[in-house]
Write a structure and sequence with these properties.
This protein is mainly alpha-helical. The chain contains 14 helices and 3 strands. 26% of the residues are buried.
Length: 313
């Protein structure tokens, strides 16, 4: 009964005093009612609940399947509610004051398998000058781990086939030298000898490496369009940037160290590169869950009631 009185007073406060949007007010009230129900089961009250209890409640919400955004709203509601109780002198502290909102985890990048990469390249039709260009273009992106903009801005004079390297200008105009790889060198050479001269327009000087049908630099939109068409022929769902993600992940899977991959990708912060280790770890976890006899389907087991935490109201 006491909890319900406090909740009604808090709802009146939100409606009449606090500058809060109606939708946020509904969210706060929902979360506080969840907390009240949880307190009833845990044999504690809203006046006596402590920080550790609230952490248990947040864990309970997370185990119920809520995402990080909902958890952040839960914590905001707790802070607001207990600040109200403190102001109204129902409590002498705010047990939610020291609880941090959860950090949003970065989504794992999509990665093509080696088999998908091979299927993609096999789907490129080589019976035209543009097919040879596409093969050279995407071989370079995958071989060097380039961003789309970096590939579009490559110049003929930036690729050194004898040395097997390319000079790339990345974000912040930072320059880096990257190895091209034998496949990339081969297809660039084929493209330069057999196709690019026919794509150039007469009396026009163009130093961009990859050309469009108009004989001008191939745009990022043009790269995206060609990639999508090839993926459809190969039966693959991916984005152009997936080749860069795959480049990094396949290097790490092959034993490359993180610092080397950072340098090849042109990341200023190694923390950006570390996302690819998460991709590799997630793949390992899935393999373990699928193949190890104790990798998944943990047995259901009840524990003695003596292990349950007791609360004192």
């Amino acid at each position: 009964m006491e909890n319900q009185v406090l909740i009604r007073e808090y709802e009146d406060f939100l409606s009449s005093t606090a500058q809060i949007a109606p939708l946020s007010r509904e969210t706060y009230m929902r979360e506080i009612r969840f907390l009240s129900d949880w307190c009833t089961e845990a044999a504690c009250s809203l006046k006596s609940v402590q920080t550790l209890d609230l952490l248990d409640f947040i864990t309970h919400r997370r185990q119920g399947g809520v995402d990080h955004r909902t958890l952040a709203k839960t914590i905001s509601a707790l802070r607001s509610f207990f600040k109200f109780l403190l102001q109204e002198e129902y409590r002498v502290d705010n047990p939610a004051g020291q609880i941090d909102s959860p950090r949003r985890s970065a989504p794992l990048p999509d990665v093509m398998t080696r088999e998908e990469v091979e299927a993609f390249f096999k789907a490129i039709q080589l019976d035209s000058h543009y097919g040879l260009r596409d093969r050279a273009l995407f071989e370079v992106i995958y071989s060097c781990g380039l961003r789309i903009s970096e590939a579009a801005e490559l110049k003929v004079g930036s690729v050194f086939l004898a040395e097997g390297v390319a000079r790339v200008h990345g974000k912040g105009n930072r320059e880096r030298i990257v190895p091209v790889g034998d496949h990339g060198v081969y297809w660039i050479r084929q493209y330069l000898q057999l196709s690019r001269p026919h794509m150039l327009k007469r009396n026009r000087i163009e130093d961009s490496l990859f050309l469009s049908m108009r004989g001008t630099a191939l745009s990022r939109k043009g790269i995206w369009k060609r990639f999508k068409q090839i993926c459809e022929r190969a039966g693959i769902e991916a984005k152009v940037h997936t080749l860069r993600h795959s480049f990094a992940t396949h290097l790490l899977q092959g034993g490359a160290d993180l610092r080397s991959v950072q340098a090849l990708l042109g990341h200023a912060d190694i923390g950006t590169t570390q996302i690819y280790t998460h991709v590799e770890n997630e793949e390992l976890r899935q393999v373990h869950a699928a193949l190890h006899p104790r990798g998944s389907e943990a047995p259901e087991q009840s524990f003695p009631s003596s292990t349950t935490r007791r609360h004192t109201p």
